Amino acid sequence: VGGGGGGGGAAANTTSGTFSFGYGGSSGCYGDSGMIDASSITTVAVTVGSAGTGGVGAGNGTSGGNSSFGSFITAQGGPGGNGGASTTAGTAVYISNPANTGSCTGTNIMLSIPGGGFGGQVSLGNITYTQIKGGEGGSSMMGFGGNGGNASVPARSGTGYGAGGAGASALFAQ
Q1: Taking the model in full, what pTM does it have?
Q2: Is the dihedral of CA 83, 87, 89, 93 positive or negative?
């Protein structure tokens, strides 16, 4: 069972001499309940968690939905990436990773792997479009996180199941 991936954070509008970038969304938790004695079970409710959506403006991405197989196991969706504030150009910045997804819960858990995501980054030296990059989306057991975008390549959605979306980036062209 895998939770939905979180949406990537947006980048704030920039003005002269500034840049911004957002966190990548975290992947959803992945879990396995192993063997279940189904002899007395007639029905089991199954929930498939939805994907989170990317942030707007300087906003945060939304969290992915929880997925479950009855009361046996619930996999939490990944948190959305935080939106990035505008920062003065010429400074080197790295935003640390956002919080990981929590562990799976339920009555029959054999395996639980929390999801994660990545912060944005800026290279040292002169600030150019290619040196500013939004955070990578977190990869899951069943999918790959989106690649962080820069001005020449937009942020990408995660691929597969439970992967997080990438954070956006913005640089004011002088």
Answers
A1: 0.84
A2: negative
